[in-house]
Hints:
Keywords: ATP-binding, Disulfide bond, EGF-like domain, Glycoprotein, Kinase, Membrane, Nucleotide-binding, Phosphoprotein, Receptor, Repeat, Serine/threonine-protein kinase, Signal, Transferase, Transmembrane, Transmembrane helix. With 749 residues, the chain is an alpha+beta fold. The protein folds into six domains: 14-94, no CATH class; 99-246, Jelly Rolls, CATH 2.60.120; 257-303, no CATH class; 310-352; 399-503, 2-Layer Sandwich (Phosphorylase Kinase, domain 1); 510-736, Orthogonal Bundle (Transferase(Phosphotransferase), domain 1), CATH 1.10.510. One 2-acetamido-2-deoxy-beta-D-glucopyranose is lined by residues 201-202, 204-205.
Amino acid sequence: MALHWLVHVFLWCLSLATISSSSSASSSSMKCQRRCGKIKIPFPFGMGDPNCFRNEWFNVTCDESVTPPKALLANNDLLEEDFEVLDISLEGHLTTKKEIIHDCRSKSYNDTDIIETPISFYGSPYSFSNTRNKFTAVGCNTLAYMTGYTPTAGLIFRVGCISNCFGIRRVMNGSCTGIGCCQSSIPPGIIGFQLGINSLSSDANRSRLGPCSYAFLVDQDFNLNFSVFNLSKTSFLDRNKQVPVVLDWVASQNEICEAAIKNKTDYACLSENSHCNDSINGIGYLCSCSPGYSGNPYIHEGCKDIDECKNKTSHNCNQVCVNMPGSYHCKCQKGYHGDGWNNGTRCTADAKELPVLKVILGTGLSLLFLLIASTWMYWLWRKRRSMKLKEKFFQQNGGLVLQQKINTRRSDTFKIFTIEELKRATKNYCASKIVGQGGFGIVYKGVLPNKKVVAIKKSKLVDASQIDQFINELDILSQVNHRNVVKLLGCCLEDQVPILVYEFISNGTLYHHIHEAGHLPSISLENRLRIATEIAEALAYLHFAASMPIFHRDIKSANILLDNNFTVKVADFGVSRLVPIDHTQITTLVQGTWGYLDPECFQTGKLTDKSDVYSFGVVLLELLTGEKAVCLNRSHEDRNLAMYFVRKMKENRLFQMLEERVRSEASVEQLMAIAQLTLRCLKLNGEKRPTMKEVVVDLQGLRGFQNHHSVHDQESEKLLCETSQGCKEDAGGQYSVSGHFDISLTLSR
Ligand SMILES: *[C@@H]1O[C@H](CO)[C@@H](O)[C@H](O)[C@H]1NC(C)=O
Ligand SMILES: *[C@@H]1O[C@H](CO)[C@@H](O)[C@H](O)[C@H]1NC(C)=O
Ligand SMILES: *[C@@H]1O[C@H](CO)[C@@H](O)[C@H](O)[C@H]1NC(C)=O
Ligand SMILES: *[C@@H]1O[C@H](CO)[C@@H](O)[C@H](O)[C@H]1NC(C)=O
Ligand SMILES: *[C@@H]1O[C@H](CO)[C@@H](O)[C@H](O)[C@H]1NC(C)=O
Ligand SMILES: *[C@@H]1O[C@H](CO)[C@@H](O)[C@H](O)[C@H]1NC(C)=O
Ligand SMILES: *[C@@H]1O[C@H](CO)[C@@H](O)[C@H](O)[C@H]1NC(C)=O
Ligand SMILES: *[C@@H]1O[C@H](CO)[C@@H](O)[C@H](O)[C@H]1NC(C)=O
Ligand SMILES: *[C@@H]1O[C@H](CO)[C@@H](O)[C@H](O)[C@H]1NC(C)=O
Ligand SMILES: *[C@@H]1O[C@H](CO)[C@@H](O)[C@H](O)[C@H]1NC(C)=O
């Protein structure tokens, strides 16, 4: 058997003449017939005119005598037989038909194989496609094989398969599964082959299953439509005498691309945008269009640009596809952004969001602007209103007059503060800054920007009719400059009520030191006299040295402040008249300064400098006795310290009254002198009281010498008690007292 087919191979080797692909085909002519029936015949294939096909290997004849017309590869003695052309593809395939071989021998066992006549494409551009064909055998207990030759591998090979039917029921219908039918792949580059077939089983069993076995090479896509019934009949053979086989063809069977490109005269890839592709199936090459082009690469301008954009499935664009020669690119529509590729960033709409965003942004901005503008307008209005108000208050409070006065005097110690300055100084009138409170208003401790500590007094509402007077007083007070008088540093007239700024005295009131601190016994007589002297000096200054006589009107220990060195500072100025006269004042009067008030003035309602002298006398008594001006603990007639003292003096029992330390430190003469001075100050008749000047002189004398008291006393009494000013000179003619912190004061004109 082996020898047998080897002989056959040898035969085709000899028999195949060397075929030269002679005619150098020119390009395809438009006149060429390109169809045979339904079959397209593209160049390099062609019919008729030699210019219509590349060379005689591609000469196709169309037999139109039969219907449908048959296309045949013209053999021209080149090929052993005519091959019917069923289909030509420019990818290098040509579908033709080939007979199947069969063994339907019904005799008992016959060892001899049935061998097909060999077929060969040696020297031609054709070979049997290994990718498209399958060697197939049909039958039960069939052995079939294919002996072939491939010049690239340079070898003879044999492939085959055995088909068996163990149980006919398992024969698969329609497809070849190995039961009743078997298939085998074939190697590439086969240019010729021969088929053999034989039976493996006895005739008896064979006849039961079917008389025939078949073997053939077939297009793998061919529907065999194989069924078990076909085995027992010969109809399979009848229907499929020929089966389609796919041939591979190359443009030139003995050249590879490298060489072909150099041979301009015979190069097959004539189209622009085409290129040469070496055959994988043996020597030879094919032409193909470059990527992005399609068409026939074997003719001029055969490769046409593929308009990828025409076919939605052939491009990968998200929105807009733009075709370009050989390729395409993607874009996004207006109002979209992105690279436009489905595999890239695609297209994202930006147009729709933008107006919304713009509207939102615009509205937001304009609202914001409106808000800011209205806030600013409101603020401006408030500021203007507040400015106007301030101005109004300033004018109402006589600010202009005061300003003029201050300007003309060019005082640099008195300042007109703005409302903001004072707000800052008191931390917006913080409650923790309050150091005193009463019928007159509130006193705050404040710190000015220059670190200076001040007392800021905010009055209660004032009577507008008294503004002029208030301003005058302020003007005069601002000029008061005595070491024992609390200094008025400035004022603020921008608020509804005038605000006064004083220097801050840190060590409390004399009242506190005498009655509350509990350290009165530690204060020496000398110191007490000094304090008394300083008070007297301050009052004398106010009465006589100031540009206009100033009556304090409310001298009391609570209005005498002491600084850290126990230096006297007579406090509180100028607003007594401005304190509205209401019922609270009466109470304050009774509670606060009862006991200090000049009884004459209280009765007549006229105030003189002597009223201050009386009050001073009471303060002096406090210093000497340590008793309060009014003390409810004492018997009824003695509640008033001044009256109590006068009575004791009459009874000659002064010593009982005096405070321990005073008694121990003072000589009898000294004590008597002090007592006499006090007594004179407390005279019911104001005119009999000494002036403050005289008091000062007396006190200074007392402090210095104990000796010439008697002479001095009488002299000074004569001297001092003569000069006096009547209450009638008091312009105001009113008395007025304010609360604990307040010191009433009036200006006498
Ligand atoms: C093509 O084949 C036909 C038929 O075999 C033949 O008559 C004709 O001469 C051939 N053409 C050429 C150019 O060889
Ligand atoms: C076996 O087959 C061969 C070839 O077909 C034939 O020549 C031969 O006569 C057959 N032998 C018998 C015994 O039938
Ligand atoms: C094959 O086809 C025949 C007729 O069409 C059917 O009777 C049989 O059952 C089928 N066999 C299989 C295995 O499908
Ligand atoms: C034929 O088939 C029968 C059973 O189906 C089997 O017993 C016999 O051995 C077979 N004959 C041959 C030659 O295979
Ligand atoms: C295959 O066979 C079925 C019936 O078995 C038939 O209807 C069908 O047309 C056949 N197909 C082909 C391609 O022959
Ligand atoms: C197989 O047998 C069935 C039934 O006899 C028939 O219709 C069909 O055409 C046959 N197929 C072939 C390929 O012969
Ligand atoms: C080009 O091809 C032709 C025809 O196949 C051949 O005769 C010629 O020798 C080739 N020329 C070269 C340079 O290979
Ligand atoms: C070359 O041909 C092979 C097989 O025919 C194919 O797979 C390949 O894509 C082709 N190359 C080009 C660039 O066309
Ligand atoms: C579109 O292209 C796809 C593949 O790219 C192809 O399968 C389909 O047939 C084409 N459709 C048309 C109408 O050209
Ligand atoms: C998307 O695919 C195309 C081919 O279909 C390719 O040319 C392009 O580079 C790809 N883009 C990205 C971003 O991967």
